[in-house]
Design a protein that fits this description.
Elements: E1 2-4, H1 12-33, H2 42-71, E2 75-77, E3 81-84, E4 94-95, E5 101-105, E6 110-114, E7 120-125, H3 131-144, E8 153-155, H4 158-181, H5 184-204, E9 208-211, E10 215-219, E11 224-228, E12 232-242, E13 245-254, E14 261-263, H6 270-287
Antiparallel strand pairs: 1-2, 2-3, 3-4, 5-6, 6-7, 8-9, 9-10, 10-11, 12-13, 13-14
Helix pairs in contact: 1-2, 3-6, 4-5
Length: 301
């Protein structure tokens, strides 16, 4: 049985809150026994100390409960299924066959597992030691079930396009105002450069991904690119950790290409898209596994 436990890390905010709680409490008690002063209002000062102690005490307690709950969120798994390591959270071993899909919670740094009825059966903390290994095992078990995924098209929403339009218009208006009333170099020069840079990002970003029966199609505003499944030598699920926050991304290695092609996150999480893409490629491979491997285009991952 494999066991994955939370990574031990110091909770600086909780420690600061506890120190402030002790300091405010001590000062509040000290003022009671100090000699009276003409500028000292006992009622107002004691009330302030009580409010401060309650605030920092409550903050420390909430963070302590959260940290205690996180420390109990270990995961245990074997060939039969997966479950929480802590017996108080134990809901029984969940067999791999009952896990139909997963969802990434990037903001809260969780990975939720769901059954075929969309009921959440398990929550996994990103900060577990060996999280990548644990995720790889879960993903492999889901792919082995050979599930059929209805979604094969992923497109940017209207908010994505509206956001770029609003930002560009605001910068344009700001540039005109600054250039006319304050500084022409900043208004017409620097802000115009920023607008051009944002425009390049917008036009060079993929806005839609289609998975056909034999290829990945990337649609841009001005062009399209199709990558046949036979050209894909590897599908990679990697993580970028910035300021202790984990962000996943999917990339593919293409035959005769030195650098991997990063696929944007559109519509679904990176891990979910990785599962859907791997499932589509493996399905295609099973259908055409009798094709000769002499042609480089017939190389499969």
């Amino acid at each position: 049985m494999h066991v994955f436990v939370p990574h031990k890390r110091p909770n600086t905010v909780m420690k600061i809150g506890f120190i402030m709680f002790v300091a405010v409490s001590v000062l509040g008690l000290a003022r009671i026994f100090l000699p009276a002063h003409e500028h000292f209002n006992p009622k107002e000062n004691i009330l302030a100390f009580i409010i401060g102690a309650v605030y920092f005490g409550t903050l420390t307690y909430i963070l302590w409960r959260k940290e205690k709950k996180r420390s109990r969120a270990g995961i245990a798994l074997d060939d039969h299924g997966i479950c929480y390591r802590d017996t108080k959270l134990h809901q029984g071993v969940i067999s791999w066959g009952n896990i139909a899909k997963l969802k990434e919670r990037s903001i809260r740094q969780y990975l939720d597992l769901f059954d075929s009825h969309d009921n959440r059966v398990l929550r996994i903390d990103y900060r577990l030691d060996g999280f990548e290994q644990l995720r790889d095992i879960i993903v492999d078990k889901i792919i082995r079930q050979k599930l059929e995924y209805a979604q094969s098209s992923f497109a940017r929403g209207s908010l994505y396009h509206a956001g770029f339009l609003v930002v560009t218009l605001c910068l344009f208006v700001l540039g005109l105002y600054v250039g006319k009333n304050l500084n022409p170099v900043i208004g017409y020069g620097i802000l115009s450069t920023v607008i051009v840079f944002i425009g390049l990002l917008y036009f060079n970003a993929a806005v839609k991904i289609n998975l056909t029966k034999d290829s990945v199609e990337l649609a841009y505003l001005r062009s399209e690119r199709s990558i046949h499944f036979n050209e894909i030598t590897a599908v990679l699920l990697t993580d970028v950790i910035h300021r202790k926050r984990r962000t996943s991304r999917v990339s593919i290695r293409v035959y005769n290409s030195k650098t991997p092609t990063n696929l944007p996150r559109i519509g679904v999480g990176a891990t979910t898209f990785y599962i859907i893409l791997q499932t589509a490629i493996k399905k295609h491979r099973r259908q055409y596994d009798c094709v000769s491997s002499s042609d480089p285009r017939n190389y499969y991952p």
